[in-house]
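Standup notes
- HV: blocked on the assembly model, inputs below
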Amino acid sequence: MQVQETFYEEVRRKGISRRDFLRFCLLTTAYLGLESTMFSKVVRALESKPRPPIYWLNFAACTCCTESLIRSSHPLISDVILSMISLDYMETIQVAAGHQAEEIVWEGMKKNFGNYILAVEGSVPTKDNGVYCTVGGMTALEYIKKASRGAKAIISVGSCSSFGCVTTAHPNPTGCKPIYKIITDKPVVNIPGCPPIAEVIVGTIVHLITFDTLPELDALKRPKVFYGQRIHDKCYRRAFFDAGMFVEKFDDEGARKGWCLYKVGCRGPVTYNACSVVKWNEGTSFPIQSGHPCLGCSEPDYWDNRPLYQHVADVPLPGFATADEIGKGFAIGVAVATGAHLVASIVKKATQKVKEEKKEQKEE
Amino acid sequence: MQANQIYRVESECVTRYYVWDSVVRVSHWINVIAVGVLIFTGFYISTPFYRPTADEPFGATVMATMKNLHFLFAVIFTLNGLFRAYWFFAGNTYRQWFRFHIWKADFWKEAWWKLKDYITLRYTDYELHTLGHNTLATLTYVIVFLAASVQGLTGFAMAGKINPGGFFDTLFGWVIPLFGGEANVRMIHKMIMWGIIGFMIHHISFVIYLEVFREKGMLSSMITGLKTRPLGWEPVEKPWEKKEK
């Protein structure tokens, strides 16, 4: 049996110099939010540990997460990462197809039982025994249950598999569910986003293989390094927010000058992601930088909180009214009821007085 | 001053009772100021209606000031509320814990009777303790207090996320996943604000009415501490039971 190559051997074979390798390690250490003393640990891990195989499964999703991952244009990240994580199965980019491809998966999983990592893109339909999504003759539900048996960890890539995105949006006709609701006996990492940032996906995977543990997760199972802070708190337009200078309409003077997009429904203040720090496409830009409000794509139920160009607090509750309308209705209701009660009380007292006076007059 | 004593002053035409001690009065007016500032700044943060006439963001700090004020008065409101919660148990003879026995049937009988009494426009004076609060009022204030607590939890949870892992985040960070994301936390914060506004409308118009038309000293008692009853007024024990007979 062939001994598995380490990451370092692989990159050297592919003609990448040690200098570039170290640079990659340093960058990765920084992306993971680790202190610089951990640099040597990252290097040692990538030099000595065999590359754990990763199986990338596509279920009910639009493949935008794959697009995001393969378009990460850091030369080191895109080339090296794809070989680094030993991506043994990924429908979108693999050469094999049909029976051949399916054979690779199940044989590989058997061989690496207990050691491989599953990266799942897309949620899993559960209604009618999950017939709405089938891969290789199996429903996605059967597939994920079978594949997860020998997995070391599962990475839910994208909002679909983390929280449920378009696929689980109301009325959810196929009964789609995010992965963590289906697989409960394996460690699951959620990397929400529609799609998530390539460096975030990669960073999480690198953390997993470097330290053999999950990165520190928050209550929604997201890596704290990337999802610990609001987009708003690191936004470069924050100065305009603090000053009170807002874009009122998409084509006004403020929009041209790059003011804060809070009033056109930017959800940066309630969205936890690394967009304003890591940015997209080699750190070129992110939605707010290009003048578009944040849609909050990495938050739970983001697709149900339509219309997207409004704050969730201003979005009507299903078939009802907005929080403000309900609140105003309540306040007005209280005011009317109180007013009516008070007027009635005053009238009653006045009429009583008149009656008493009449009585007194009669007695006189 | 001893806690369980009733202080009474009789003038020519009315009897006055010393009901609200200085702690209650001071904390009440701190609440008035804090809630006023919180609602105003909260409205601004939710929908910024004023824009400074500046071309560049330096120098102007309208939103930042509003947020800081909101946070500052939230802290004041919370500390005041915590102390007031302690006074719920430790105040004078009209302290509300004294009557907040929700496990007793009498509590609910009184509340129900009082509700009917209000709706039929009678405003009956009965037991001595109702100089402070009858049980219906106590119940209302406890609900308002709980609503304010939810405001505190949700508000500090959102504020704490500025510094993840910091003091406020450690204490209140769990609130955000509880409601499924910060967006929902904001919505709840907003809705409860409206609930508190509704309470305020009722509260303010009623104390003015009772002060002006019923001469019970409801409004002025928050300044003087004295509530008024007619001369020669005698407390009635458990009026809801007598009616049934």
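- HV (later): unblocked. Residues 160 and 166 of chain B are 7 Å apart (CA to CA). The domain at 8-244 of chain B is CATH 1.20.950.20 (Fumarate Reductase Cytochrome B subunit).
- Next: hand off to the docking folks.
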